Amino acid sequence: MWRDTVLVAGKDLRIELRSRVVLHQVVPVAVLVLLLFAFALGPERATTVHAAAGVFWVAVLFATVLAVQRSFAVEGGDGAHEALRLWGLDPAGVFLGKAAAVAVQLLVLEVVLTVGVVWLYGAHVHAVLPVLVAAAAGTAGLAAAGTLYGALAVGLRVRETLLPFLLLPVVAPVVVAGTRAWQVALGTGSGSVWDPWVVLLVVFAAVYLAVGVVLFGQLQESP
């Protein structure tokens, strides 16, 4: 399983490095979300700083939908999706590999968005470790859920429009918990960042990783 995970993740990441779709499409869309919200919120620093965490996770969520659609689109046109099954790769390894590739792309994007949030919104990170843990757990949860529902929608003609409807309600806890955790870490929220928000992010990621490992093979075999 772990060998196949590395193979699939490496394949997807090499495709993205050569095509630069994330650089040319996903990153600009996410940065545009930051800019639009910055203009909409106005010049008041108190307002923008308080909204920074929520805008960050909304931008990451939109980028997740685009990255997952791209992850399955590259295998849909020339029958590569069926080839993965014929090669005898472990379905759990395929799931973890594709989720890992999406997570790496999202982590790179989040670095860019963090710089944008600090620059455009005037936010300052007061607790670095909770931000890193929340970002890692939230990214893992988004990538795992996105890959699972991307596989569910891949065989449908309306997959481009169906995926957001399937994914967005499911990952709402990630957006809420990630926003709350970041607000505390940025000094705009009250309470403890570790309990319960980061715990919720970790549990969400663990559940969807486990579900994906178990069910991804059945989703691949479904017509």
Give a verbal description of the structure:
- This protein is mainly α.
- The chain has one domain (2-221).
- The chain is built from nine helices and no strands.
- Helix 2 (21-41) runs antiparallel to helix 3 (45-73) and helix 6 crosses helix 7 (159-170).
- It is globular and about 55 Å long.
- The relative contact order is 0.15.
- The model has no long low-confidence stretch (mean pLDDT 84).
Condensed summary:
The protein is mainly alpha-helical and about 220 residues long.
Radius of gyration using CA atoms only: 18 Å
Structural class of the secondary structure composition? mainly alpha
Beta percentage is: under 5%
Q: How many strand elements?
A: 0
Question: Helix and strand string, N-terminal first?
Answer: HHHHHHHHH
Could you give the topology of this structure?
Elements: H1 2-19, H2 21-41, H3 45-73, H4 80-86, H5 91-121, H6 128-153, H7 159-170, H8 172-185, H9 194-221
What tags apply to this protein structure?
mainly alpha; 223 residues; 9 helices
